[in-house]
Design brief:
- The protein is mostly helical.
- 78% of the residues lie in helices and 0% in strands.
- It contains eight helices and no strands.
- α5 crosses α6 and α6 packs antiparallel against α7.
- The chain is elongated and about 70 Å long.
Length: 158
């Protein structure tokens, strides 16, 4: 009787696996009938790829180096307002966004490219900012970090 027990467990496991496969196939068929295509399935894959990249040592170190370099790219205190104006023109900030970003830049007292990135992404969390614009501001914050050195020098010129 003890010998039958492992085979019953194996049969239950096999049955469960078959049931799961059938359920997955039914779900795929249902999604296809609803018109949900391949692109909708890419999001989880993209998220997985992003997570893997975050834990890839070389990519992590490269990102850390970019952020460290951004912290070294200074904004002259007397030029902070003009830098916000230039960045605002480049990335199409409205007057309210420019003011809000400037307030956060000054409040955080980090007059650097990294500080500007932080001010932009912090402003995106403001209650007055709608979801779509907040998402754009988060992307723009990343774009500030990724600016070419020459582009940053033009924006940050005193």
């Amino acid at each position: 009787m003890a010998a039958e027990r492992p085979s019953r467990i194996a049969a239950v496991r096999s049955s469960s696996a078959i049931t799961a496969c059938r359920a997955a196939a039914r779900a795929r068929d249902l999604l296809a009938q609803l018109g949900v295509g391949h692109r909708e399935h890419a999001l989880p894959r993209e998220r997985i790829d992003a997570q893997r990249a975050a834990f890839d040592r070389a990519k992590f170190e490269a990102t850390a180096m970019r952020l460290g370099k951004a912290a070294e790219d200074r904004i002259a205190p007397e030029a902070a307002v003009e830098v916000i104006e230039r960045v605002g023109r480049k990335f199409s900030f409205n007057d309210g966004e420019r003011k809000g970003i400037l307030v956060r830049l000054i409040a955080d007292a980090d007059l650097s490219r990294y500080g500007l990135h932080s001010a932009i992404t912090r402003y995106s969390q403001d209650e007055a900012v709608n979801y779509d614009r907040a998402t754009e501001l988060e992307r723009i914050g990343g774009d500030v970090i990724e600016l070419a050195a020459n582009d940053w020098k033009v924006l940050a010129a005193a």
